[in-house]
Amino acid sequence: MAAVKQTVEHVASLEKYKHGFVSDIEQDFAPKGLNADIVRFISAKKNEPEWMLAWRLDAFERWLAMDEPDWAKVNFPRIDYQDSYYYAAPKEKVGPKSLDEVDPDLLEVYKKLGIPLREQEVLAGVEGAPRYAVDAVFDSVSVVTTFKKELAQVGVIFCSMSEAIREHPELVKQYLGSVVPVSDNYFACLNAAVFSDGSFVYVPPGVRCPMELSTYFRINAENSGQFERTLIIADKGSYVSYLEGCTAPMRDENQLHAAVVELVTMDDAEIKYSTVQNWYPGDPETGKGGIYNFVTKRADCRGDRSKVSWTQVETGSSITWKYPSCILRGNESSGEFYSIAITNGRQQADTGTKMIHLGANTRSRIISKGISAGRSSNTYRGLVSAHPKAKGARNFTQCDSLLIGKHCAAHTVPYIEARNGQSKFEHEATTTRLSEDQLFYAMQRGLSQEEAVQLLVNGFVKDVLQELPMEFAVEAQKLVAISLEGSVG
Amino acid sequence: MLSVSNLHATVDDKEILKGLSLDVPAGEVHAIMGPNGAGKSTLSYVLTGRQGYEVTQGGATLDGEDLLALEANERAAKGVFLSFQYPLEIPGVPALTFIRTALNAQKKARGEPEVTAPEFLKLARAKAAELKIDFDMLKRALNVGFSGGEKKRMEIFQMAMLSPRFLILDETDSGLDVDALRIVADGVNALRSPERAMLVITHYQRLLDYIKPDRVHVLAGGKIVASGGPELALELEREGYEKYARAA
C-alpha cells in the first residue's frame, strides 16, 4: 500500500536529533567531583586573579549550605554532584590566537553544526545576508570569538568571560553578580563557584552594535556539566542583539547545564536576547538521558526608558527549568518575554518569566506559546509584580498552550501582585488541542500529515517566531518541525 | 470518472453507508439529496479519506484507480476536492500561505514544478476578483473571524486555485444569502468542463437552481434509493423525503 511505503520512507528520513554525534577531541579534565580544590583548580586553569578565586570560594561555601529547590513541576532523581566533571576543555597550548591554531577536529565539529567560525565564511554568504559574530563555547571553555577586531573599532567588547576577567577586571568586578546575586538560588550559586566560561559583551554609550552577536554552546564530554556565565552590559543609549544556540550529543546519562545570564541596561539602552535551545532531549520512549537545563537568566533595566526583550525557542533538554526575567528599575523601562516551549517524548519543561515593576510607568509584555506532545509535561510559570512606587505599571500577558495527542499535559501557573492602585495587568490564557478536524482539512487540500502539523503549529507560534532575528527565525521554524516529528498518528 | 460500488462504511462501529452505488462520468454534475442523517456527509468523508470512517465492503475508483487505498492528501493530489459544510479556522496561517502550501504539495506529489510566488499571486488576484473576495482578506489567517458566507466563498476560492478534477460540494448553500449564493454558483459553474465531474450534496433544491445537475440521486438509509433527471429535485422539494425515507 502506498501509505505503508510512504511511512517506511518517512521513518528512514527522520532526522530525529541530528546534533547527537560525539566528537573525539583530546580534552583536559578536572578530577571528578566537587570540593574547594576543584574550584581552585578551575580558577588556576584560567589564570584568574585572586579576587575572582575568593568570589568563587565564597559562592561554594554558600552553596554547601543550600538545598536543591523542589517547587518546579518537574521530576528527576537526585543529582549526585560528586559524579560529574566540572571542567572539560579541548587540549591546547595556551589559548589559540587565531583560527589556524585551533584543533582542526574542533573546527570540523562546528562545520558539522553549521556554525560559521571563519569570518570569511560569513562574508562569503549570500549577498546582503546579515553578518553575525560568534563566540564558540565547547564544554567548559570558549574556543574562538570572531569579528572581535571589527567590533573593537566601534568600542564593543565581545569576548569570552575568562578573557574579560583578565582584560577588563574593572567592568567584571562592577557588574558580575550584580543582577543575579551569588546566592540567588541553588543552581546559580553552584554556577558562581564553578563556572568555566561564557560570553562577555560591553556596548559603550550611544553605540548601536553593528552586527548580531551570538554564542554557540556545545556540550561534548561525557559525565560533564556545563556551567557558563554570560554578562552583557548595554551602556546609555546603546543597542545590541544577541543570540545563543545550544546542542549536545545523545548520551544515556543526564548532564547538568546550569548557566547564569546577567543583562544590564542603562538609560535608553536596549538588549534583545534570543535563545534557540536544542540540547539533547533524552530518549523519547524511555526518557533516558538528556540535559537538565537549569538556568538563571535575569535582566536589570537600571536606566530610565531602557528595554530588554527575551525571546526563547526551547525545544531540547530532558528537563528545562528557566525563567528569563526583567527587573524594571528605571522609570518607563520595559521588558518583553516571547517564548515557544516545545516538549515531546518524555520531556519536562517548567518555564516562564518574572516581570518585576519597580519604576514608574514601566511596561511589560509576555507572550508564551507552549506545545506539548508525546508524554511530555509543559508548565508556564510566571510572576508579574508591581511595587508601591511602580505607579502606572502595565503588563499584558498571553499564555497559549497547544496539546498534541492524548498523553501530554500543559499547566499554567501565573502569579500576579499589584502593590499599588495604579497598575494595569491583563492576563489571557488558552489551551487547545490540535484538532483532528483541522488536520483533515489541511490534508484534504493536499498536505501530508507531518506537513499539516507543521503548518498548524507554525501558525500557533507565529507571534513569537517573528520576534527572532530573521536568519534564526527560519532555523527555529525548522527546529519546531523536527521536534514534533512523529508526534501525531 | 467516479465509480462507487456497493459501498459499506462504519463510523464508531455503526454502519452508515449500506451498499451505496454511484457513477459520475466526466463532464457531469450529479446532485445527492436526502434527509438528515441519511449518510450524505459520511459519503463525502469516505471519498476524501477522513480517519475514523472505515470501509467494510465495496469500493470506489477515480478513473479506474482505487481511491480507498490512498491517504487523504494523495487523493487531493489526484484531484479530489471537498468544499466543507463547516470550513475550519486555521489561526496564524494566512489564507494565501495555506493555499500556496497546499498547491505546491499537490504539484510535488504529481511530479510537477512548484508554482512561483509571482505566478501564484497573479492567479490569486484574478480568482479573488471573480469571486468578489477582497484581496486583503487573503492575507488574514484562513477563516478566522470570517462570516459563514465568507468561509463558503473561501472554499470556492480554494477550489478555483487548486483546480481539482473531481469536486464534492457539501451543503455549500447553507449560510449563504441569495447574492452570495449567485457568486458561489458562478464560481462553481466556471469550473464545469468535459474533464471534470461534480458531486453536489444538498438538502434543499434551491442550490440546484443555480448549479444545474445532470442527474439527481436520493440518498436515504445509507444507499441510493432513487435516481433521475433535474425534475426529481423539484419533486423532492414539493413532496419531501418521506416516501424515500420509508422505502429505505
What does this structure look like?
The complex is a heterodimer of chains A (489) and B (248). By secondary structure, chain A is of the alpha/beta class. Chain A has one domain. Chain A has helices at residues 2-13, 36-45, 50-64, 104-113, 119-123, 148-153, 161-167, 169-175, 186-194, 436-444, 449-465, 470-483, and strands at 27-29, 88-90, 132-138, 141-145, 157-160, 199-203, 212-218, 229-234, 239-247, 254-257, 260-265, 270-277, 290-301, 307-314, 319-322, 325-328, 334-343, 348-357, 363-372, 377-386, 394-403, 409-418, 424-433. In chain A, the strands form 3 sheets. In chain A, strands 5, 6, 8, 10, 11, 13, 15, 16, 18, 20 and 22 form an 11-stranded mixed β-sheet that branches. In chain A, strands 4-3-7-9-12-14-17-19-21-23 form a 10-stranded mixed β-sheet, with helices on one face. In chain A, strand 3 (132-138) and strand 4 form a beta hairpin. Chain A is globular and about 65 Å long. Chain B is an alpha/beta fold. Chain B has one domain: P-loop containing nucleotide triphosphate hydrolases (Rossmann fold, 3-Layer(aba) Sandwich), CATH 3.40.50.300. Chain B is 37% helix and 26% strand. Chain B is built from 9 helices and 10 strands. Chain B has helices at residues 40-48, 72-77, 95-109, 117-130, 148-162, 178-190, 206-210, 231-239, 242-247; strands at residues 2-11, 14-24, 29-33, 53-62, 65-66, 80-83, 166-170, 197-202, 215-220, 223-228. Chain B has a 6-stranded mixed β-sheet with strand order 6-7-8-3-9-10, sandwiched between helices. The model of chain B has no long low-confidence stretch (mean pLDDT 92). Classes of the chains: A alpha/beta (489), B alpha/beta (248). Chains A and B meet through helix 1, helix 10 and helix 11 of A and helix 2 and helix 3 of B.
Low-pLDDT ranges of chain B: none
Class from secondary-structure proportions of chain B: alpha/beta
- The total of helices of chain B stands at 9
Going by CATH, what is the homologous superfamily of chain B? P-loop containing nucleotide triphosphate hydrolases
Could you tell me the CATH topology label of chain B: Rossmann fold
Give the tally of structural domains of chain A: 1
Straight-line distance between termini of chain B: 27 Å
Chain-averaged pLDDT of chain B: 92
Strand content of chain A: 25-35%
Number of domains of chain B: 1
Q: What structural class do you assign from the helix and strand content of chain A?
A: alpha/beta
